[in-house]
Amino acid sequence: MRNRVIYGLSGFALGLGFPTGAFLIDTFLRDLPVSLDAFAAFHRDSAAFWLLDIVPVVLLIAFGLIGAGKDREAQSVSAQKDRADQATRALASDEVFFETLVNSLPLAVVIVDGDGKIIRINAAFQRMFRYTPEELVGKDLDPLITADDGRTRAFSLTGKVLSGETIRDTLVRRKKDGLPIDVNVHAVPVLVGGRRVGALAIYEDVTERVHVHNQLIHLLEKTDRLASTDPLTGLYNRRAITGLAEAEISRAQRDGLPICLMLIDVDVLKTINDRYGHPAGDQALELIALLIKANKRDRDVLGRWGGDEFIMVLPETGPADGEKVGVRLCDLIRDSYLELEDGRRIELNLSVGVCGWDTGSDRPVTGEALFQQADKALMAAKTQGRSRTVFLPFD
């Protein structure tokens, strides 16, 4: 509005110069005095001079329109400036809100640029890793919070996130003082206008949770071992050895491999118990279990069947080799002895029954049938005088 008035008045003033100048020139040329009569004569003698009288009005309108345009332009600039100011205030407000929000989070937050260098951390990150912003901003993240042995993987994960992947994982990181902590990490790429410019990672300290989890796993493993282990000898108990034997026998038949099953009886256990007491009998069982375990193959499965009996499964072992193993165990135990605390020595011996299945057999092998035949072989060994091995083929 202001420009329109000023421009309009300026145009009107400029327009007055046209009729005034024409009148003065006319009076000069005709040597007339400057008066109202001369002014009237000027318009009477030349009608065209009436057109000059409207020039101020025309210029008033024309310059007024120009001024109006200037007013609109000024209004537009002012509106744009207002919008820019509002956007700046909004941006500043958003940044304050973002800072407040991020610093209020109980989870540690770190933002890195496209080169993996730290741009910003929140208060929870400072508390978790014991670093100040001055110690971190502008530096590479991974070397500061990762141990040497985990740094290669850390670099790989950071590279994946900066390439556009989202990472969720449980990792080990370290504090400023070198103390390791277990953290859940959720890292995402940061996009601005559709272009990747960095990454944001959120860390949750789960050290206590992982510790409890590991304790629970350890307890479950221990419970499972107790449930499947004979408490005296530390070997598999009857329930566990039965399941393992069935699994090995099924595998032998499926893969066409030979297998032997061996029943072992401690001949002198009742005599030891009666003469030296049950603690001595337990020591004899422990020693025999230890000797057999030390002289078996890794793939052989040994367990305590109950009382004075042990059972051993020999995968991928033919009948002849199975019998040799039984003879060797009998000789091993016969050459050993149990020495009591008072210096007395107790001789030991075994009776062993062996049954073997080979791929040439016409009958499919089962655990029950193999066990029954090995039991017959053990009874035959006892009948024949003990401290010996008897082999019976699977039929």
Would you kindly provide a written description of the structure presented here, covering whatever features stand out?
By secondary structure, the protein is of the alpha+beta class. Helix content is 55%, strand content 21%. The chain contains 14 helices and 12 strands. It has helices at 2-29, 36-45, 49-53, 55-104, 123-129, 133-136, 142-145, 151-162, 207-228, 238-255, 269-276, 278-294, 319-334, 367-383, and strands at 108-113, 118-121, 167-174, 180-192, 195-205, 259-266, 301-306, 309-315, 337-339, 345-347, 350-357, 389-393. The chain has a 5-stranded antiparallel β-sheet with strand order 2-1-5-4-3, sandwiched between helices. A 5-stranded mixed β-sheet has the order 7-8-6-11-12. Helix 14 (367-383) links the parallel strand 11 (350-357) and strand 12. Helix 1 (2-29) packs antiparallel against helix 4 (55-104). The N and C termini lie far apart (118 Å). The mean pLDDT is 81.
